[in-house]
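Regression report. Comparing outputs from two consecutive submissions.

Submission 1:
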Amino acid sequence: MSTIIKNCKVISPDKEIQKFHIEVENDYIKKIYKKNESLPKSFETIDANGKMVVPGFIDIHTHGAMGFDVCDGTVKSIEEIAKAKINEGVTSFCPTTLTVSEELLTKVAYSVEEYKQNRKYAKACGLHLEGPYINKNCLGAQNPKFLRKPNIQEILHLNSITKISKVTLAVEVDGGIDLVKELTKLNITSSCGHSAATYAEFKDAQKYGLTHLTHFCNQMTKLHHREIGLVGAGLLDKEVLIEMICDKIHLVPEMIQLIFNTKSCNLIALITDSMVASGLNDGIYDLGGLEVKVENGVARLTKDGAIAGSTLLYNRGLKNIYEVTEKPLPELIKTTSLNQAKSLKLGRLGKIEEGYLADITILDENFTPTDVFINGKRVK
């Protein structure tokens, strides 16, 4: 059965259209009607009442929400995180692990695959391994107990259980470049993070398939006038996709503005890096065996005060960059789904266009999701 979403303010990459109507059929956007065209009368109709209709968000870096963590290793946790993501307007996400044991990563992989086989909420488009192959001097909120050298056999084992979409690693560690090479052969995205790599080491890794920088500016080599490091690489390079946590904490508003003034919106992906306390009150929480205190919405390790992920809601990140950069929404909306879909090869996602999957989010004037559709079916 077809559904008509009428009276839409369509916000799609490079496109803003007032009072258009969208016909959805069999998972896909079948037709977009102009405002004066007559609509079929027998279809189910949902009135957007002039609200913003955008491609469903894709969060490729999220550890948890609402008291649940990917590294709980249970299908219940993946399901509850997926449910929470729907309320943020997220239709696809990469469950993201921490630096933990191989045994726990295996348990997580099975839980993600079980959820994918019986999906109820947001799509789990592939596992994101953040660590354990990172630099011991750039840990942030990762547990040093479980650091280990890059190991393609571990990746192959996990990938045989469930699809791995992305691996965050430090390319400068022993075996880092070799792992990038192997990941490229497997069509798994390599992202550099928790890293002290030089600009030259970044360029070397890029030659072998490195395409992303994880939580840009955080836990990576800073910009310096004699060694521009990974921050300089992200700003200068015309190919690498930078992943940004736009909560105004990981990146202050002035830095967000600087990045968007320097970097094309085609090369930016908004992420949340959300942790277990996302959507909950301040308090004490656990993150991969490390104690975290959340105060005024900011998560920090109790042992040293290091920022420990975020409590950011995805839709809030979009609102933040809209207010900070003052760039038009049809430009900014590229950073919420299209760039992720292209980079991770997720198919026809990220546009409100005929022939694209009907993963759609409707936002009110405060960027709060009011309705969410996955494969054309209303889930919120």
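Submission 2:
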Amino acid sequence: MAAWYLRAHTSLTPTGHDPLILPLAWIGEGSPLDDALFAARMQPQPPIGGHPRHPNGLVLVPEPTWRWIVARVPQLALIWPTR
């Protein structure tokens, strides 16, 4: 349903091709990942917010941007491996 709503090809785990979709429940409001997603909005392929009330409520993160985020929050590589 999220893929349809955002009109995008998505995946719950990074595959190297599809963007990663993250709900705020996984991100954690005020977490290092939440902060990194806000900072990543200045990247060439920024995360796409799909929630009407919170920019990171439901986020679609392209693979290059995910790699940028993991470089800044290394513990994420243990949770979501990237190719």
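Expected: both submissions complete independently.
Actual: both completed, but the second showed a warning that disappeared on reload.
Relevant detail on submission 2: The helical segments are 2-6, 24-27, 32-39, 63-72, 76-79.
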